[in-house]
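User: quick one - fold this with S-adenosylmethionine bound?
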Amino acid sequence: MGQDLSLRSLLSATLLLPNEARILLAHLLDKHYQLPRSALLAHDDMELNAQALKDWKVLESKRLQGEPIAYLIGKRGFYSIELQVAPGVLIPRPETELLVDIGLREIKRIAKETETAQVLDLGTGSGAIALAIAHEAPSAIVTATDQSSEALEIGRSNAKHLGLESRVRFMQGNWYEALGGNALFDVILSNPPYIAHQDPHLTQGDLRFEPISALTDHGSGLTCLEIIISQASKYLKPGGLIAVEHGHDQSDNVMKMMSSINLSNIESYLDLSGCRRVVSGRNL
Ligand SMILES: C[S@@+](CC[C@H](N)C(=O)[O-])C[C@H]1O[C@@H](n2cnc3c(N)ncnc32)[C@H](O)[C@@H]1O
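Assistant: Sure. C-alpha cells for the protein plus S-adenosylmethionine:
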C-alpha cells in the first residue's frame, strides 16, 4: 500500500503547531487548486499533487527552521486590509494598529473643520499605516516615506492591489529629507526602528528574518525617535498631531523629547497587552 498523503495525514504527521500547519496548507490549497481554507475540513481525504506536496515539504521545513509564517505565505492582515509582505519589510504588528486608531480619530476631528487631512507616515515599510489610513479615511491624503527602495517597492505594490495608488504618495529618503523641502501635515505617524543594538530579541523568533534596518537604530534605540520628534514642529501645521510607536520602556524618554520641543497635550497610550506603546503630542 502506498503512503497516505491526504491532507488529514499530512496534518497529523507534521511537527508544526496544528494552527500553523493549517495556515500553510490553506495557502497551498489556494495556490494550487484555488480552494478555500474550508477544504481542509471538507476534503481532508484529498491528496496533494506532486508539485503541491513538494511546496508543502519546503514550507514545512522553512517554518521548522523559524521562518515567519507571514513571509512563507507572503501576506499579513493589518487593521482592515491585507498586505503583501516579503523579507524586505517588517511584518506589520497588531500593536501598530494603535497608531492607525489615533490617526483616524484625529482625521475625523479635523474633518469637522476642513475637507481633507494631510497625513505623513515616516518609515512606511509595507505601507501598513499609510494604507490602512487611506483605506479607512477617504478624506486623507497620505504621504509615505522610507529609506529602503525594497520597502517602497512593496508599499507601492500594496497600494496598487488595494486600489489606493492615487491616494498615497511614496517618497524615498532619510526621514523628513524624503519630502524634498517644506511640506506641512495635520498628522505625522511613525513606527521607527526602536530596538537597541544589543537587545537579545534581535537574535530571536521572527526578528532574525526581518530587515535589521527596520528593527534597530544600531544605537540606544532612541536615535530615530529623537530625529523624528525633534524636527516635527517644522512639518506640522499649527494644531497638528504627531504620534510615534516606541519600545516598552521608552515612554518616559519619548514624552521628554516631545516636551523639550514644546509640543502640547502629550499623551501616552497602552497597547493591547497593557504596555505603554505610543506617545502623541500636539503643535500648539
Ligand atoms: C519598524 S519598521 C516599520 C514599518 C511599518 N511602518 C510598520 O509599522 O509595519 C521601520 C521602517 O523605517 C524604515 N527606516 C529605517 N531607517 C530610516 C530612515 N533613516 N529614514 C526613513 N526610513 C527609515 C525602515 O526601512 C522600516 O521600513
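One thing worth noting: DSSP finds twelve helices and nine strands in the chain.
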